[in-house]
Specification:
single chain, alpha+beta, SH3 type barrels, six-stranded mixed beta sheet, 6 strands, 47% strand, elongated, Lsm1
Amino acid sequence: MEQNEPLGTKEYEDLLDQNIVVLMYDGDFLYGILRSFDQFNNITLENCVQRIFHKKQYFQKSLGLYMIRGENIVLLGLSNLNLRDFEKVDQKTIETTLQ
């Protein structure tokens, strides 16, 4: 596939039932299992979580079953992130650190 070429059906089919990461247009990172997609690149993630990273810390918010409009997706791919090297913190801690 050429660089900057939009994903087609075959590429999405290869990612079905896989753990993926989605970079959203607003900068959020969403992780979950890709369950469905359509011709507009809208997708559905199961067991979706949003993670916010800062240095060696991260905050995780559970979103459950989550539908994402294709126009909000910047990038998606397989996820194999190892969180062992990161400290999980609560939302208040990460917000304080980011200020």
